[in-house]
Amino acid sequence: SCALLAPAAGAFGFRKGGAARRRPGAAAQGRQRWRLDGRALQKLPVHMGLVVTEEEPSYADMASLVVWCMAVGISYVSVYDHNGIFKRNNSRLMDEILKQQQELLGVDCSKYTVEFANQDKANQVLNCQSTLKVLSPEDGKADIVKAAQNFCQLVAQQQRTYTDLDVNVLDNLLSSTNGFPDPDLILKFGPVDSTLGFLPWHIRLTEIISLPSHLNISYEDFFSALHHYAACEQRWGK
């Protein structure tokens, strides 16, 4: 994608040390604040991509970002790192999300479904109304190649003709985002000015915001990025 990356450190007041996320007795106050924050935004992304370009991903910090997405009301979340570390260790990430969900959100949510893309793994049900996919590079270009091969096979079997191929047909053949809308917003973490293969077919109209790091990120930094997205004017290529 040739989408422009937003300025990193200065625009959002990024604090490397982060804010204390687990102050005693702050959970109920935090839950109410996050709900109000989500409602106060002029627009909220339906699908948020969390893309880590750093070499050492943090499970705890990524779990915090996922739980904050849940708390403000984002319906779909994709987690991606270019080495596929989160996907290979998805059980560890899930455990951290469950832990932080209980600490930060309590048990008063409705339903939260976690699905790991392209894996024979049963859905895991948590407690909030968001759906998560953990992606790796194989869910990007490799998924497009696989979709093209499947379409060619359908043509060879005379179940399709080459004139049937259009955007909607290809979307339906892609398995990495089955059931997911295209991302509205990507938060890209790290020094690399690239999304490093994250869903290349799906992000042609996606807003991309770059932050220096996901390590020790605070809720204030996360919400500042959401506020920037809510205030931006999207011209859809016009």
Automatic annotation (TrEMBL):
**Compartment(s) where it occurs, according to its Swiss-Prot or TrEMBL record:** Endoplasmic reticulum membrane
Write the record's keywords in alphabetical order, separated by commas: Angiogenesis, Developmental protein, Differentiation, Endoplasmic reticulum, Glycoprotein, Lipid metabolism, Magnesium, Membrane, Receptor, Transferase, Transmembrane, Transmembrane helix
Can you cite a GO biological process for this protein? angiogenesis
Give a Gene Ontology cellular component term annotated to this protein. endoplasmic reticulum membrane
Q: Which InterPro entries match?
A: Nus1/NgBR (IPR038887), UPP_synth-like (IPR001441), UPP_synth-like_sf (IPR036424)
Q: What is its EC number?
A: 2.5.1.87
Q: Which GO terms describe its molecular function?
A: ditrans,polycis-polyprenyl diphosphate synthase [(2E,6E)-farnesyl diphosphate specific] activity
Q: Which reaction does it catalyse?
A: n isopentenyl diphosphate + (2E,6E)-farnesyl diphosphate = a di-trans,poly-cis-polyprenyl diphosphate + n diphosphate
Report how it sits in the membrane.
Multi-pass membrane protein
Annotated pathway, please? Lipid metabolism; Protein modification; protein glycosylation
Q: Does the keyword Flavoprotein apply?
A: no
**Pfam families xrefs:** Prenyltransf (PF01255)
Query: What is its cofactor?
Result: Mg(2+)
Whom does it interact with, and what assembly results?
The active dehydrodolichyl diphosphate synthase complex is a heterotetramer composed of a dimer of heterodimer of DHDDS and NUS1. Interacts with NPC2.
Name the job this protein performs.
With DHDDS, forms the dehydrodolichyl diphosphate synthase (DDS) complex, an essential component of the dolichol monophosphate (Dol-P) biosynthetic machinery. Both subunits contribute to enzymatic activity, i.e. condensation of multiple copies of isopentenyl pyrophosphate (IPP) to farnesyl pyrophosphate (FPP) to produce dehydrodolichyl diphosphate (Dedol-PP), a precursor of dolichol phosphate which is utilized as a sugar carrier in protein glycosylation in the endoplasmic reticulum (ER). Synthesizes long-chain polyprenols, mostly of C95 and C100 chain length.
Record PANTHER family: DEHYDRODOLICHYL DIPHOSPHATE SYNTHASE COMPLEX SUBUNIT NUS1
Family in the record: Belongs to the UPP synthase family.
Entry protein name: Dehydrodolichyl diphosphate synthase complex subunit NUS1
Q: Which organism is it from?
A: Syrrhaptes paradoxus (Pallas's sandgrouse)
- State which gene encodes it: Nus1
